[in-house]
Structure formats: C-alpha cells, structure tokens
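Appendix B. One record, verbatim.
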Amino acid sequence: MIKKLYDWILSWAKNSYALVALFILALCESFFFPIPPDVLLIALAIGFPKKSFRFALICSIGSVLGGCIGYFIGLKFMEIIGNNIINFYNLSEQVNYISLLYNKWDSLAVFIAGFTPVPYKVFTIFAGVFKVNFPVFVLASACSRTLRFMLLAGLIYYFGPNIKKFIDKYFNILALIFVVLVIAGFFVINFF
C-alpha cells in the first residue's frame, strides 16, 4: 500500500497541479499522512532545479501549517482524532517517551522531529497534548522544516539529479549527524 502511495505521489510531479499537490502533501504529512513530502519535493527539484528553493518554501509553509493542525488536534481533539492517528501508526507505547522529551526539551524535541525522519506528525499532535508554548512550537517547526526542505533543494540545485541517490542512501545518517551537532551546540550555549 505504501509503495502505491509513493508512486502516486511521484506521478504528481508531472502534473500541472504539482505545486498544489506539494503543499497539500506537506500539510497532510504533518499530522496524519504516511509519505513525507520530500518524495515530491525531490522529484520536482530534479525536474526543475532552478525552482528548487521555491518548491522547498511551498513545502515548508504547508508543513508548518499542517503542524499547527496537528497541534490543534492534540490540544482539542485527542480523544476523537489524535488517538486514532497514533494507533494507526502503532505509536501508543511511545507516549511516555515523547512526554519525557517534551517535559525536558520542549522546542528542541519539535526541532529534531521536524528535521529528522522521526514521525513529525506524532510530535505535532503531542505538542498540543502537552501544551507546548504555541509560538515556540511554530518557530521550532518553521526553522526545522524549512532547514530540512531547503537543504534538500540546495543539494539538488547545486549537485543536480545525481545527488538523489546520495540523499536516498545517506539521508538518515546525515540527519543524525546534523541533530548531534545541534544538540552539542545547544549544550555548549547552555553550559557557557
């Protein structure tokens, strides 16, 4: 089923409504949809490298707005909607761990979830459940999602279609290295 969704999303890259599809995909992925918008973003950026950053901006805006919807679901509709989403992804056992992350790190947890392959949708919903400061949530989401999508767009813009194989193969490792650097920077700032 996921492979069919993946192929369907890629088919939008050749459609005249590709930008609308990118925005909607980014929006929906932030609170329930299983396929990340990176898939369509990469396809569009490879097809039109000079527009890579425009695509990344559209993706970022959609993702942050979707994150706000996820936050609102967690804040007001956890029983009706949020629990169904969490159960669909079999993540109900991670609730205590996510709670610990939010109690200790708050905006850093949102930032890391927004940048890495961690399911961002879970963090958006639980940010509402745990009543993370909304402006802080939006700022952390905007920074992390924009950085993630602009980085992908930049790699494709500067290195061309060949970078796709590299991104596909090493994205998780690169994201992990980046997160380690961000956390290290956070500790250095707080320690000094």
